[in-house]
Structure formats: structure tokens, C-alpha cells
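Practice problem 4.
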């Protein structure tokens, strides 16, 4: 004799329980994809800003005399050129002078947030060497 209780045979509400288990995982994955998209946007913004800073560093502002952009002006141009995703912080380093070149660098730091738990803090650094006439 097998004993079958009405509770074991009743499957009403099973879909609701499966839904309640699956939705938080799905939402966390979608939010994680969004967070990675923000990192990719910041990466593109850093690359674009370094390109603008490199272009500006190679300019002569006045052709009648030797007026090259100062390091402060190059740093300001990079800072103004960065397009930001609205999350995290950018840090534009002072250009480093070398013999015939300048090194430009930008760092982006963003704490990862996956809604239900905090992820690691991600730091992306980009640098570019610009050759200038001495």
C-alpha cells in the first residue's frame, strides 16, 4: 500500500517558486552585464581622451615663436576630453617629460556593484607616449 498525500500530487504554485528562485539570478546577470558595459564605456573614454591629449601635445600654438602646450594645459585637455559613464572616478596624471617625448596616462577606478553583493574594485590604466619636437 502506497501512501500518496494530496500535497505531493498538488503542483499548483510550482512555477511561482521556480520563478522566485530564477529571477534574482537573472536580474543579477543582467546588472553585471550593464556594469561591464560601463567599464567598456570608460575604457573607450580614456582612449579617446588620450588621443585628444596626444594631438594637443604635438601642436605649436604660435608659429612665430616656440610656444608648445604646457603640461598643465595638456592635462586640462585630457581631463576635458574624457567622456564619463557617471560611475567611478578618473585620474589624469601629469604628463611625464622625456627626451623627445611625453608620457600621458589616465586611470579609472570603479567599485563593481552586483545588486545583491559587492564585487571587487576595478582599476583600468591607459597610457600613451607622444613624440614631440625638441
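Answer key:
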Amino acid at each position: 500500500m502506497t501512501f500518496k498525500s494530496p500535497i505531493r500530487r498538488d503542483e499548483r504554485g510550482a512555477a511561482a517558486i521556480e520563478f522566485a528562485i530564477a529571477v534574482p539570478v537573472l536580474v543579477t546577470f543582467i546588472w553585471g552585464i550593464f556594469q561591464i558595459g560601463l567599464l567598456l564605456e570608460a575604457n573607450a573614454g580614456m582612449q579617446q581622451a588620450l588621443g585628444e591629449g596626444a594631438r594637443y601635445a604635438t601642436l605649436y600654438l604660435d608659429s612665430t615663436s616656440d610656444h608648445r602646450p604646457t603640461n598643465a594645459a595638456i592635462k586640462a585637455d585630457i581631463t576635458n576630453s574624457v567622456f564619463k559613464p557617471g560611475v567611478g572616478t578618473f585620474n589624469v596624471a601629469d604628463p611625464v617629460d622625456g627626451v623627445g617625448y611625453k608620457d600621458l596616462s589616465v586611470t579609472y577606478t570603479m567599485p563593481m556593484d552586483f545588486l545583491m553583493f559587492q564585487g571587487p574594485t576595478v582599476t583600468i590604466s591607459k597610457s600613451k607616449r607622444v613624440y614631440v619636437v625638441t
